[in-house]
Protein 1
Amino acid sequence: MNKKIKTPEVEQLFKGMLCLKSVEECYEFFEDICTINELLSLSQRFEVARMLREKKTYLEIAEKTGASTATISRVNRSLNYGNDGYDMVLDRLNEE
């Protein structure tokens, strides 16, 4: 875990997120806390991660998501060398 982000404010934000009880509540909260572009960027990265796990090519991913190769590369680096956060969430979604 990156110690630079482990602050009381970030912890409070995460605790607030854990209080959300539905997708509709997530829409309400994230529309207030993020700009539309920030939210779309986050969702794009998440879709890139999903597609990389499905062994899609950078070209396929770029065409479907509109993500740049730099973004795809950053997400791929997180999947390979990060904290396994993408994998944890994607695995849990697949279990549902």
Note: The longest helix spans residues 36-53.
Protein 2
Amino acid sequence: MTDRPILEPTPAHPITVTPTGRHVVVRVNGAVVAETDAALTLQESTYPAVQYIPLADVVADRLRPSDTETYCPYKGEAGYYDLIVDGVTVADAIWTYRTPYPAVAQIAGHVAFYPDKADVTVDA
């Protein structure tokens, strides 16, 4: 949609994307659904930091595209995936910005997991 606002990060609403630099494991109901050494940490304003995992490091046969879409004026259009774990569907557990805005371009090709639907562990 062309009428949606596009906002740039500012000192009042900063957004940073940096390599996590540590091993990240994502589990759903105890099953490993993603594991990577190439995660990115996105820190937006005062929100909790989010780990963005390369899509290639997610167990592909557990992913099902969802029809859900949302919009963030700082990051762009988000698409979603359901996760299938032991025959159970966890709806919209993952989001991704397929063509993120330039300020967060590094997260292209990465996905993030909702903390209430997945356990994301970053090694110390």
Note: The domain at 15-122 is CATH 2.170.150.40 (Metal Binding Protein, Guanine Nucleotide Exchange Factor; Chain A).
Protein 3
Amino acid sequence: MSGFLTTHVLDTARGLPAQGLQITLYRLQDGARVELARMTTNEDGRTDSPILPQAGFATGRYELVFAAGDYLRATGQAGAAPLFLDEVPIRFGISDAASHYHVPLLLSPYGFSTYRGS
């Protein structure tokens, strides 16, 4: 059985899931970024399906890019230009092709955190 990749975005400033936030997934290979998926979070702050499903899952280095600036502007949290946070990139490795990797983002206008979830 092969694994899969999911994500979840929570707006910690508002205490709500971050609905409508665009996420792009890249595979990092030989110095290049190859786009694999582009999705938008639903009302629960998740994508409607795994951002990297079992069929495309492989070990390697990846990057999730969260369009935080667009989301913050849309929710009235942007503040003065330029934004402190605009695109939030998270680079990570997948070493176990049979595991579920969950990479959540906790987001506010002036900070973020992530971890390997379950």
Note: The longest helix spans residues 68-74.
